[in-house]
Amino acid sequence: MSVHEYMPRASSMGALMTNSRSKSDPLGQTAKTAIEQALVYNVFGIRDELGSKQIEKGIVVEDESIKLASRVYDWLDVDIDKPKIRLSNDYIGGEPDVLSKTVLGDVKSSWSGNTFYPVYFQSELKNKSYYYQMMSYLWLSGMDQCELVYCLTNTPEYMIEDMIKRESWQKMAFPSNSDKDMETIEAEVEERVRGQHVFDHIEDKNRVKRFLIQRDDQVIEQMIERIEICRKYYDQLLNLL
Known about the structure:
- This protein has two domains: 185 residues, Lambda Exonuclease, Chain A (Alpha-Beta Complex), CATH 3.90.320.10; 41 residues.
- Helix content is 48%, strand content 11%.
- The chain has nine helices and six strands; from the N terminus they run H-H-H-H-E-E-E-E-H-H-E-H-H-E-H.
- It has 241 residues and is α+β, with helices and mostly antiparallel strands.
């Protein structure tokens, strides 16, 4: 088949697989919104705004997270300096964080200790969006197993300092802190913030959580069917322009 104008990213596959509550319409609103955003970008060049401190940290510390996962899980042939490889077929495209002869993997850098450890104690992956993203990489690469690794990596210092500054000014206005000077408040805030965002004192093995996702061709067939439905909706929207 020819390549369709609508080529979803692996990272959006989880949204596209959400179902509608209506039996007459298989696409949920989350899926429709993702398709609409893709069309607006393809036609008008307007990209969806995805900005948050969590996303920013993930981008900045990605290399450190890969190094951490490599140390713990012996990703011996993973070259951190090698550019990522973008994969695509007639249905989908994606760029896994790690792709070597022996390892297909992706890292998710947790925002804080509070967001990491609830996942650390999970026995199986509960995030369906990540599951479909990893299954997309398996489909694209032809490999049989993908490693999804949550990493507890230090938050960049400039982000920590910004959090300390912002929170200190907020707390300065609290009536309960009326008897404290700014230096005292900043010291209290800094202790709390660094306790949630600096993890050098924790062993590497306790700063990673790996989920192994096995290739499932039946799931991939379901993804193909869903993409074909999504393309019909995309074309319907395109005809409205």
